[in-house]
Amino acid sequence: MERNVKTAQVLLETKSLLGEGILWNKHDQSLYWVDILQKRIHQYNLENNVSTFWELPGYVSKIVPLEEDGGKFLIAMQEGLSIWNKEDQGLSIVASLDTYNGQIRTNDGGIDPAGNFWIGTMHMKALPNQGKLLCFRDGILETIIPAVTIPNGLVWSANGRFLYFIDTHTREIRRFTWDKTAGLSKAYHTLVRVPDKLGMPDGMCIGPDGHLWVAHWDGYGVYKWHIETGELLDKVQVNAPHVTSCCFGGPTGMDLFIATAREGLDDAQLEAYPDSGKVFHFKNLISE
């Protein structure tokens, strides 16, 4: 791993209880993320430094901008998938989920190369194998993996051949073969097993350099893993233990944005790491 120390800086002071699902929206040149437990969608516009948030009627874990309209998003909520209109906060349900009396909620998700939305579910107390990995295709939610615990990651290789997926409690980054027609392979290759000292893998993105950038819960940073060999290549330090999600964006697409959480930290930890829950930023992390 490279020895030069890189440290992300606080981007804005807003604190999330469980910040997740951070993304860069090219339509309005803004950063979006969710606070799952506070049921909020946040937006921060880098051009005018204006931040805002919207409160929703339920837990929201993932948002994806719809390409045809920068003001509309496909969002994953506890009760299912909906189209959310930012302009009037309207919600239109497109697929329902069984919450098992409020015990199950959605977590991380992603878009496959064919344009289908994938979403993972989990138990509210993260009980083992109570969640699923689902694919929303042709208006139907289909179960792909029937038993997962804390589904995270969900990114596809540039050539569309592989899905990289994390079930956080396993500490593994898994690579599945994927095909538009055949779907997902049942077998997978464990690309990385994260050592205990580095925390647990959470959200993940593929950087402009083509490698995996992974937020590590209890790992105090975002780690760069080689997308083919699984070798640890780099780390961006974050002054918060619970690092949850990351994405690249900004004017050049080379800035790293990082979400964190206060959830799960005791008073002593919150005093030691008062920036927990904030969004962090490393400008021009990757050179063109």
Entry summary:
By secondary structure, the protein is mainly beta. The chain contains one helix and 25 strands. The chain has one helix spanning 267-272, and strands spanning 6-7, 9-12, 19-25, 30-35, 40-45, 50-55, 60-66, 69-77, 80-85, 91-96, 104-111, 117-123, 131-137, 140-148, 151-156, 162-167, 172-179, 183-193, 200-206, 212-217, 221-225, 232-237, 243-249, 255-260, 279-282.
Helix and strand element order: EEEEEEEEEEEEEEEEEEEEEEEEHE
In percent, how much strand structure appears in the residues?
over 45%
- Largest β sheet strand count, sense and barrel closure: 5 strands, mixed
CATH level 4 superfamily: TolB, C-terminal domain
Organism: Sphingobacterium detergens
Keywords: Metal-binding, Zinc
Cofactor: Zn(2+)
GO molecular function: calcium ion binding; gluconolactonase activity
Give a written overview of the molecule.
The active site is at residue 202. The chain is mainly beta and 288 residues long. It has one helix spanning 267-272; strands at residues 6-7, 9-12, 19-25, 30-35, 40-45, 50-55, 60-66, 69-77, 80-85, 91-96, 104-111, 117-123, 131-137, 140-148, 151-156, 162-167, 172-179, 183-193, 200-206, 212-217, 221-225, 232-237, 243-249, 255-260, 279-282. It has a five-stranded mixed β-sheet with strand order 1-22-21-20-19, with no helix packed on it. Strands 2-25-24-23 form a four-stranded antiparallel β-sheet, with no helix packed on it. A four-stranded antiparallel β-sheet has the order 3-4-5-6, with no helix packed on it. The longest helix has 6 residues, at 267-272. The protein is globular and about 45 Å long.
